[in-house]
Design a protein that fits this description.
It is built from eleven helices and ten strands. It has about 280 residues and is α/β, with parallel strands linked by helices. Helix 11 links the parallel strand 7 and strand 8. It starts with 8 loop residues before the first helix and ends in a 10-residue tail after the last strand.
Amino acid sequence: MNEEAPAYFLYVRDLLKERSGLVVTAQKLYLLETRLLPLVHRYGYHSIDDMISTLQSSHNESLAVDIAEAMNTHESLFFRDVKPFEFFQSTIIPELLQRRAAKKSFRIWCAACSTGQEPLSLAMVLAEEAERLKGWNVEIVATDVSHSVLKKAKEGRFSQFEVQRGLPVQKLLKHFIQEGDTWKVNNDLLQKIQFKHLNLLDAPYRLGKFDMMFCRNVLIYFDLKTKSQVMTHLSKCVEDDGILFLGSSESTIGITDEFCPVRAGQGVYKLANDQPSLMEG
């Protein structure tokens, strides 16, 4: 560790690892300072050292939660990386219509959904397929460890900057209403999503089984042990022929043998069993 790291570093590092699985090195001190200083002012402390020293001597759960949430990265945009959503519409939906025809239902989980762009993107795709899905029960469950981002996701209100990131103009005009400087998603779209608080470190998840799971750009913030544990927990939540989407820069190599790739280099995985996945037809 950097010898110049302040006294509070080890405490904050361990707190983040325990609460959210986030791995922070001494090289990220600038990030700690940037994200914790607003809490110093909000709680009325003189410095980060002062705030953490007080937390160590007299635990304040509200402050501990705020510190963990402040350090989480909530980068998100609509139709991020595009391809998973194209696969969903062109390949997965037709396959689901065949394989789930008897029960006429399927479930999707967006883990670490941040401020809601990913589940809303999926909801927009489903809206385009409304005619084919008439009479079907489709659930989208979106979870995150952060209460603050879930609150924003449930509100469904986005800035001009946020809606310009990945959201085609025609979809913006169809599914959103402009209110002053912000855009509010239509309630009929927002109501298709169940937003729930969930920490991926806390298993079992008790969410039931899913036909399709998104857990993208999350594992990159965990150490190897935590990645392996999370993947084991995820394997218990996917249907035998279901699929898992990871981020394009993420891989299961060296982490787990419970999932194997369906499309190499595209972040699409299935359970390591002999059953064809939804994307294999």
